Amino acid sequence: MNDTSTQRMPALFIGHGSPMNTLEDNGFTDAWKRMGQVIGKPRGVLVVSAHWFIGSTAVTAMAKPRTIHDFYGFPQSLFDFQYPAPGLPELAAEVVDVAKPDWVGLDRDQWGLDHGTWSVLAHIFPDADVPVVQLSINALKPMDYHVELGAKLNALRDRGILVLSSGNVVHNLRRIDWHAGDTGEAWAQRFDDAAADLMIHRPGDIASLADHPDFAAAVPAPDHFVPLLYTAGIAAAAPNGAEALVRGYSLGSLSMTCYGVSCETIGRREGYDAATLPADVPPDQTNI
Known about the structure:
The chain is α/β, with parallel strands linked by helices. It is built from eight helices and eleven strands. The chain has a single domain, classed as LigB-like (Protocatechuate 4,5-dioxygenase, Chain B, 3-Layer(aba) Sandwich).
């Protein structure tokens, strides 16, 4: 892996889907692997994951973040999985600095790396040899706050930091269709297409998706959607906006779409065969 830690890094939004994507090889995980091969080895990774959704803005500042298994109902092999990437406390301090005047707290011992982070990084950086820091999603803040904070984080890309957001543009577990495979319901496709149009052409207006007629179905809860706002903020602050790197759906009500900023060399791919959920556990209770 080439050391590119002194170069401007891309920004990514990854539609991560089921945690089982960690252990499987499919069209989406193949695309994530390709991203890692093209990106090389950054100085560090800052991740905004849907699964650290709390009442404040905080950043992990420990040297050895633990691997968090924040779900249930999955095979033991997934609970046995470890992603022992080191932390980067000095990056946490940089996040605090670039976010000013907004306040960002330092989490020295509470969180770690949740599956929204390691299910993706297991393919992008499989050797877990790139330092990783997580930024929480402040559940008390409006959409514009997250877009604006994303724009501030853009400065880290010039310091060799890959900024990665992990969620799903469309994420409605209660409307999963077990027979849908790689297809999306009409409402899911409409919303995903509207998001793509904004991300490519007007990323700074991404919060206007709240007025889309399919927003309530596509985003019944904000946790998986908000990470997209960070990539949109970076895209709005970058010269050429964002592009859709991977498009695809899973089980009718999940979008697996991925976006990139400054990712011209990665190329676009079609996703297929995304990992699904345990059939004997209600999907809205698995914390995916």
